[in-house]
Amino acid sequence: MNDQQLAVTVADGGRLRALVLELWQRTRMDWGFVTDRLSTTFRKETWIGSHERRFVGETLYGLVRHLRRVDAALARGRKTTKPPKDLERLLALLVLEKLIEPARAAKIERDLDWNAVASIDEAIAAERNPTTRLALTASLPDWLATRLVADWGDQAEALARALNHRAPMTVRANLLVGDRAALAAELAAAKLQTTPGTWCDTALHVDSRTNLFGLDAFKRGALEAQDEGSQLLADLSLEGAPDKPLVVDLCAGAGGKTLAIAARLANRGRILASDIDERKLDELRRRARRATVSNAQAIHLAEGRWPPTLDAIRGKADVVFVDAPCSGLGALRRNPEARWRLREADLAMFAARQTEILDNAFHLLAPGGRIVYATCTLLRVENQDVIAAVLEKRPELTTVPPSNPKLAAGDSFTVAPHTHGTDGFFAHTLVRQTP
Questions:
Q1: CATH code assigned to 229-432
Q2: Helix or strand or coil: residue 202?
Q3: How big is the chain by its Cα radius of gyration, in Å?
Q4: For the structural domain made of 170-225, what CATH number should be given?
Q5: pTM of the entire structure?
Q6: Measured between alpha carbons, how far is residue 42 from residues 56, 157, 191, 301, 338 in Å?
Q7: With 77 labelled, which of 39, 161, 189, 371 sits at a CA distance of 20 to 30 A?
Q8: How far are the Cα atoms of 174, 200, 328 from residue 232, in angstroms, in the given order?
Q9: Phi-psi region of 309 (alpha: psi -120 to 50; beta: other; left: phi over 0)
Q10: Up-side HSE of residue 40: CA atoms within 13 Å toward CB?
Q11: Which class does domain 3-126 fall in?
């Protein structure tokens, strides 16, 4: 069945509709990661075929991404102030996505004017308040719409719309195994269509739907799933670095950027990859073995004290890469539920933590060395304001603009889905002046 046939099946009832509604109800309980919800469900519900799984996933993501727009549409089609039911929300999404006709929805839920529901986008476009219009267009909390308008001005709507689209499946060709052309040829032989990334020579978009982790290329370390913007950050961290640098990846997590840096260095130099989460570091070690990375060492950071390995290199690091914990709003294409989970009050907490981490990073840096501060958010409070606070406290640090002006906004590296087709990333490079 095609998507429209599946939509009719879901609208009319049965097991598939029940499953979608159950997933939606469970998702709204805590706004946990949709990907985790889907993978857990699909492991249990073995009766669902691959096309049905994709449709269920896209529908669940659609409900998360378009919740305010859907509710506004239902309010437009209802004569009372009765709160929306989840079945109504599902039908409204299918109508707005033009997968079912309003007349079919009217046969199932008769108390709504479904033609009025279908015309909600015209009503939203007529809204004069830019913040309200953005909040409804892109289904954002009011506080986030307000922040985007304040920080991005005329670009706010284009950015918000782009963040609401499904992200491409992008991989990084592991240069320790082979280049992008070789990887593209291997995937083509496996009947997968790919498109080269625009900005990074290791980025490859996989256009065919597939299980990346089942591919031979993945199993032998020839590729890693990684957004093109994330790959660019790894490259940025090495701008101006010596041939065999001492690099500290201070918030390494599971090591995506550590592995990209190691590959770009061809296993030269030394990378100390640290994090407070031991489970993520175990995953980094497994990934490093698969990727044939030999110059990276995973180091656990205990709260409140430096481990001896990092303590021994105070004032010696050529590069300290700080991929700081943040709100993650630049990755809403992949994690759309984050908009409903986050609170505006969380931003101040993130900014305080980011400033503290940057201060710690300073003590590791050699004279002439560089800190690269990076986030996957596009809000000033976590980006430019944090940099301004650090520069005020540390006059020894000065800014180094990105070498590629097409990847810059002012003196900072900035890429976004509406301008570069990547997830949203910010970075700022600071150099420690020699005495």
A1: 3.40.50.150
A2: coil
A3: 23
A4: 3.30.70.1170
A5: 0.94
A6: 10, 35, 25, 36, 22
A7: 161
A8: 14, 6, 17
A9: alpha
A10: 10
A11: mainly alpha
Residues 272/321, Cβ–Cβ less than 8 Å: no
Q: Interior CA angle at 70 toward 155 and 6, to 5°?
A: 110
Can you give the residue ranges of every domain in the chain? 3-126, 170-225, 229-432
**Cross-strand partners of 359:** none
Residues 6+ apart with CB under 8 A from 15: 47
Q: Mind listing the pLDDT tens digit of every residue in the chain (435 residues)?
A: 788 988 888 888 889 999 999 999 999 999 999 999 999 999 888 888 888 999 999 999 999 999 999 999 999 999 888 899 999 999 999 999 999 999 999 999 999 999 999 999 999 999 999 999 999 999 999 999 999 999 999 999 999 999 999 999 999 999 999 999 999 999 999 999 999 999 999 999 999 989 899 999 999 999 999 999 999 999 999 999 999 999 999 999 999 999 999 999 999 999 999 999 999 999 999 999 999 999 999 999 987 678 899 999 999 999 999 999 999 999 999 999 999 999 999 999 999 999 999 999 999 999 999 999 999 999 999 999 999 999 999 999 999 999 999 999 999 999 999 999 999 999 999 999 977
Over 215-251, what HEC string results? CHHHHCCCEEECCHHHHHHHHHCCCCCCCCCEEEECC
